[in-house]
Design brief:
With 156 residues, the protein is mostly helical. It has helices at residues 21-35, 42-57, 65-85, 94-105, 109-116, 120-127, 135-144, 149-155; strands spanning 11-14, 17-20. It has two domains: 11-85, no CATH class; 94-155, lambda repressor-like DNA-binding domains (434 Repressor (Amino-terminal Domain), Orthogonal Bundle). Helix content is 62%, strand content 5%.
């Protein structure tokens, strides 16, 4: 009984052609490098946003794979431009910092109160500026919500 040669895991036969997985990865990497878009002006940003809007109006389910990839690339470029040219202001007060972290982490007020070890009422009073936070509350914000301690101290 003779053993027939089988392609190893890096190769596969398709219609008489051997496809090298490493070659395919190289092609994919070169494609993604070529398709990275950088926005350098306000006009280019506006055109990019118009193209994203046009594609998204058609609906995600009605877009081809190439169009979805194009939207992703354009959105990443627009986000990078926005971050460098028009960054969002950082919150200055402690309640604003907490609200921002709650939004980022998708947490409810009740859950955050329990996480920080305070009652819902006390948390509400602190968030509305009617009660000053104690050191335990501030420490919990730093440890549990990962808010920078220097920013917390500057807000007090």
């Amino acid at each position: 009984m003779s053993k027939s040669k089988r392609p190893d895991s890096a190769h596969a036969k398709m219609r008489g052609k051997v496809i090298d997985v490493k070659t395919q990865k190289k092609k994919l990497n070169s494609f993604t490098k070529k398709t990275k878009k950088e926005i350098k002006s306000k006009e280019a940003y506006e055109l990019t946003m118009q193209e994203i809007d046009t594609l998204m109006k058609r609906g995600e389910s009605n877009l081809s794979g190439k169009e979805l990839e194009r939207v992703r690339i354009l959105a990443e470029a627009a986000e990078k431009y926005e971050d460098s040219h028009d960054p969002l202001p950082l919150p200055e007060s402690l309640p604003e910092m907490i609200r921002m972290r709650m939004f980022q982490m998708q947490l409810t007020q009740s859950f955050v109160a329990k996480l920080l070890g305070v009652s819902d009422t006390k948390f509400s009073l602190i968030m509305n500026g009617k009660q000053k936070p104690d050191i335990y509350f501030i420490k919990a914000i730093h440890e549990k919500l990962k808010v920078d301690a220097n920013r917390i101290l500057q807000s007090l």
